[in-house]
Amino acid sequence: MNILGISAYYHDSAACLLQDGRLVAAAQEERFTRRKHDAAFPRHALRYCLAEGGVSRDAVDAVVFYDKPVTKFVRILKTAFAVAPRGLPTFVQAVPTWMRRKLWIPAEIATELDRAGAGRCGRVLFTEHHEAHAASAFFASPFENAAILTLDGVGEWATSSLSAGRGNRLRLLEEIHFPHSLGLLYSAFTYFCGFRVNSGEYKLMGLAPYGEPRYEHTIREHLIDLREDGSFRLNLDYFDYLGGLRMTNARFADLFDGPPRTAESALTRRECDLARSIQAVTEDAVLRMARHAHRATGDRRLCLAGGVALNCVANGRVLREGPFDELWIQPAAGDAGGAVGAALHAWHQLEGGDRVLDGQDRMAGAYLGPAFSDADIAAWLDARDYSYTTLGAGELERDAARRIAAGEVVGLFQGRMEFGPRALGNRSIVGDARSPRMQSVLNLKIKYRESFRPFAPSVLAERAHECFDLDAPSPYMLLTAPVARERWTETKDEPFDDIIATVNQVRSDIPAVTHVDQSARIQTVHAETNPRYHRIISEFAELTGCPTVINTSFNVRGEPIVCTPSDAYRCFMRTEMDTLVLGNHVLEKSAQPAWNEDGDWRDDLPLD
Amino acid sequence: MSTASRQVWNWRDDTPTRRREAAVARLRRTGLVGGVVALVAGTVLNLVLGHVIVGRLLVTLGALQTMAALWRPHLLASPLRWLQRFGQLVGAGLAWLLLTPLWLLVFVPVGWWLRLRRRDPLHRAPLAAGLTAWIPRRRSSDAASAARQFQDEDREARELERPECALPAPELLAEVDDAGGPSA
């Protein structure tokens, strides 16, 4: 049975294909269109999934959309009634899009399937948004029974939900409804600190450790009424997202010492403190919800999904301080993962499909995107006269490890592309975690992004305990944990006004991945899911004694992660990366022909 | 190359020449459709409805566009781009023109009426002390609900006042406990 899952029209559109309950392919539309967070109907992703699964004409049994569009539209209308006479610009902006596209999803799906050569589909189904998130977390997890928490901006009405999962069944138990939303609260601070909503939340999280929680009390007193069971109400007097085109209003600004920060202006102590404060409140809310979920379901395992579940600092605290023994987080926890959840929901909940419980999750390491053969890559390189060397298995890993150990920045392109926001070794830029200058080199010369942003380590799963205080696997880079105490080095307090000095301070013997609070966002690399990446790090460990490398996504700021070898080559030539590994082929920057582009390519990439 | 990778990365066909050819074909198609429509509309206006000047103007423009589409499609690139922008502006203007009266005649009065009756569709009022903001989810989802583009609203559930830290009703959990047997 072929089931397609689709998420679209908000941000991070995606498609996936489930064949007899097995997740065969999943990809975000942005990777193909090269528009970050692309919200358009995922026609490219859909075509890829159909091709990957070899789906023949008229063989799609069901297409499942990840929310209920009519209910969402009703919510928008009700919001308009609630805020009128304010809200006319939002109304005029929203209604035409709904009339033109969002209310005609079955027709759009039929057209796209036909254009893709898949003919007609059996049924078009609609899950609820949080149901899709919950299904993506539970049915893809390795747990037979679990409590499930989903937290994001908003779906139809729900902004958070608690469910119980048993075998192949899932039951939503409780919800919190719009406009009270933990995701929107976090996004409001993202906006206020001068970052883009729905993409800058990572930055706010990364900024938090630089600050003090001096606004935490103000947030609790004025903005959120957080209850012991994790439920909450927001005070909407301080927000503008109901009727305006911004997230916060003048009262919010009065509360936090002045107007919002202008994008790209210098970061001040205030933004750092705001980030730290809202992070503390968010962590507290998630922890309380987790405790409530434990009491409500009696389960020992927890699954998380929804955009807030990408907050790896909060996840780390849930694991360390929460009541659950085990935690599993959907790697594509945001809206893209809704496509997977929608399809899984249809298979298990509606079709009664059995789950395979063999101790492994169903995400295959999140390597669910397109792969390209060495022969194809070589043909392409030859056609363009690009210089490269082909190495055999074993030799290639040793060579890559030797280059990383020598301080080179290596672009690693191999196997199937990752699904979700993280690069996990197949579309990654890799460097030496021991180098004190690697963080600023990567930020300023490779990624062209803000210097304060931390980088994540990839560590051999079996040796993770040597570097980090983490006793659970974190294959999807969704947990933070402290760097092992014995690796810390003496630090001196820097005055805040020199954020670069703060960033560049050596805090451990793996300084490039040690954040200002001695934490790290960890990816444990497992030989079963990514053998080549595992071998590269093993070789690096053999050379240096350190089982950790720095891993960042293969892209520059504002650009989606690379998808094809030509995307990778372009990114390689545009930046100061030293080496590119394309499958079995190694390309050195110094041996490549000059790279010329009309104008500054950075102008074409929007700021994220 | 596998079907899937060719679907994603068709670099052999995706050469600058092919891209240029495709762009020209697109321009030719758009130009021809627009040109023929203008020719037909102009003829009808001129010969049937008697609008001679407008009709002739349209016929002339249509003829020029059709000829350009046939022999020099690249000449249409810039005018079509401007036409598209103009269309977007007209679209945005029309949206304001049509939706503003709707807003003023329906949304504003109904909004005021709701406020007068102290009804808030968004439930923004502060929560009384000692209550939980969790809303019980009493309806379950099944094949029939999955076929619909909307969900059934449970207004009562939203109005329920439950004490802080109250646990979900046991029957909700029992529903899944009974149904979810061990898997393969």
Proportion of residues in β-strands of chain A? 15-25%
- Given as residue ranges, the uncertain stretches of chain B (5+ residues, pLDDT < 50) are none
> What is the element string of chain B, with H for helices and E for strands?
HHHHEHHH
Strand content of chain B: under 5%
Instruction: Count the beta strands of chain B.
Output: 1
Question: What is the secondary structure topology, with strand pairs?
Answer:
The complex is a heterodimer of chains A (608) and B (184).
Chain A: E1 2-7, E2 14-19, E3 22-28, H1 30-33, H2 43-52, E4 62-65, H3 69-83, H4 88-102, H5 105-115, E5 123-126, H6 129-138, E6 145-151, E7 158-166, E8 169-177, H7 182-192, H8 201-207, H9 216-223, E9 224-226, E10 232-234, H10 250-255, H11 269-297, E11 301-305, H12 312-321, E12 326-329, H13 335-350, H14 374-383, E13 389-390, H15 395-405, E14 410-413, E15 427-432, H16 438-446, E16 456-460, H17 464-467, E17 479-482, H18 499-504, E18 519-525, H19 531-544, E19 548-553, H20 565-574, E20 579-582, E21 585-588
Chain B: H1 3-8, H2 16-48, H3 52-71, H4 77-116, E1 135-136, H5 143-146, H6 155-159, H7 170-179
Helix pairs in contact in B: 2-3
